[in-house]
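FAQ: What does a ligand-bound record look like?

Like this one, built around nicotinamide-adenine-dinucleotide:
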Amino acid sequence: MASAINLTLGDDGILVAAMDLPGRPMNVVGDELMAGIAVAVERLAEPAVKGLILTSAKADFCAGGDLDRMSKWTTPQQPFDASMAMKKVLRQLELQGKPVVAAINGHALGGGLELALACHARIAINQPRLKIGQPEVKLGLLPGGGGTVRLPRLVGIQQAMQICGEGGDLSPAKALGMGLLTAVAQDRDDLMAQAKAWIAANPKAKQPWDLPKFRMPGGDSRSPAMAQLFAIAPSIAAAKSQGNYPAVQHIMSSLFEGGLMDFDNASVVESRYFAACAMSQASRNMISTLWYQLNAIKKGASRPAGVAPSKVQQLGVLGAGMMGAGIAYVSAKAGIRVVLLDSTLEAAERGKAYSQGLLDKAVKRGRSTVEKRDALLARITPTADYEVLAGCDLVIEAVFEDRAVKADVTRQAQAVLGADVVFASNTSTLPISGLAQASLKPAHFIGLHFFSPVDKMPLVEIIVGKATSNETLAKGFDYVLQIGQTPIVVNDSRGFFTSRVFGTYVMEGIAMLKEGVHPRSIEVAGLQAGMPMPPLALQDEVSLSLGLHVADQAKKDLAAEGKAYTEHPGMGVVRQLCEIGRIGKKAGKGFYDWSADGKQLWPELATMFPVAAQQPEQRELIDRLMFAQANEAARCVEEGVLRSTADGNIGSIFGWGFAPFHGGALQFINAMGAAAFVARARELAAAHGPRFVPAAVMVRQAETGGRFADA
Ligand code: NAD
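The answer part, i.e. the structure of the complex:
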């Protein structure tokens, strides 16, 4: 079997250990890699060997822990043992009495950074794109290879808390500045030369924490400064996470308790907390969705197979308003030439000015250069003339949300481009199959639903109309990946997937108001449920008048189709507020009074919707908010709107922030099991109405023991 580490002993007596895990695109920490490092440690003990350089033969240094292995753990003893076994090898590495340098040639993340921390010096190539960090917390985990033990002893508890607790990336320059890196290098040759020089200059290297009289930089947990930090930080974190992310708490506990002990005891404590995280439902949910399902989507799981990959060269964007301007920006950023069309040249130029604004800010903050800005802007051509669209190989319309206007621009664009160019609509509410009727070729018509602001929101919901061909879908899918966004693919339906399910969350909160639930309890329940924004504030942001307009449109459309329309009990509340001009944030008033200083719940809400003497339990409110969404998502599966579990889970988290620790709207059900879901949904239906009657697919699953298929 090929070894995970190539060992080369140079004439200078320096052993170079290059990690190169066979059959994997990246190095990941697991049994195989650690066995390779153990062999390197043995070689290091040989008298002829003067020191060791740990580096990688792959593009990245090491990407983190082996999640495939973690997914198989069933008892807390397994993660505990794995964590302790890794630490044993790393301890031997740093206690050999010979210098060890990490030559970081690419990303050093998670377990990768922990390997580097066990080396006496860390040198990285100074590329701003090279990422260094402990992102475990983002998957509900804690660095279990010594991260919460070595980092505080190297850069202080406060910085370690930030690195491990927030999980962000550091650039080499930043890591150098805080003392996490020993030095930076220009390129690979320089990296190796510096690593060798460091070994020659430090023949008896020791870790600071193994020196007598070692003191933690900034003080240990007993020091006044750290005691103060630990008095405040956990409550701030708990307020932010609402206690839904156990890893955040465990990281703080590991840092605190470890900061009271010697190195080896702190290591054991860390492994215990690691095991608790690895066994938590939150981490299972997040790994399943935000790792496996997200990767499956990015690798094209929802893209039709057998269609040749495509790349957009020139994009036409019709409508240079908020959305069109954003779509033009992200596309030009990805190197695509963009024709940005509006009814007047001035309007089109205003749309282009949006890119200019974003780029000027980036240049000012040192995140871009004048040359890059100018090159990007040169790719956007504003115009009011349809002839300029000639040569576009994809068109996206983002004009007013009006069928007639959309039909008109479709016809005008096709008069220049012909029927074969793929035509997409960014509509947020109008069914795609209907809009496609204005097209010369409905097979080439598709929905590409972006979210606002386009440059910050990573999701694009691709909507397949009745006539949309596989080739058209593949083209849309490839374009979304080309601009670096995440595509989900859904079938056509009113509100598609995201708007439809998102709506159940805000409307449930609004319905509670009518029942006399205290508005503050509703808002707190939203946050406790793990949603990024509470329902009433969110409806204010989206605007009540838009919600009403969409509902009225749906009612009209359904009447025309001869179908029944059932109004959500919350819609009456929205109507009442709109009637008195409280239409949301844009008017400065909705459920809240909005001002430059912030927002405050409108005091008169209590007069309009008197608060009941008997208030429900918070748990009841939280369940209503979450079950409303999950049940609607299940209905989307039942009706064939959702085409895969991954699309539902990723769409719900990236689209409207469905509590990430649940792993998405369908994983919410998978985690509790269909039988438990159905039982609770029936209780809620009996108490609050038929919207909670469990979707047929859930009843079937409950009866057969089925679940939504994982990636
Ligand atoms: P907007 O009002 O900011 O922009 C619309 C632009 O279209 C305006 O610049 C207008 O001048 C232009 N326009 C209108 N008629 C035109 C015509 N006949 N020819 C050329 N240009 C014309 O609206 P927006 O918020 O950017 O929304 C655009 C579309 O995107 C709508 O379909 C909307 O439903 C959808 N959408 C909006 C959001 C959002 O959050 N705002 C999110 C997703 C999708």
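Follow-up question: can I read anything off the structure? Yes, for example: The mean pLDDT is 96.
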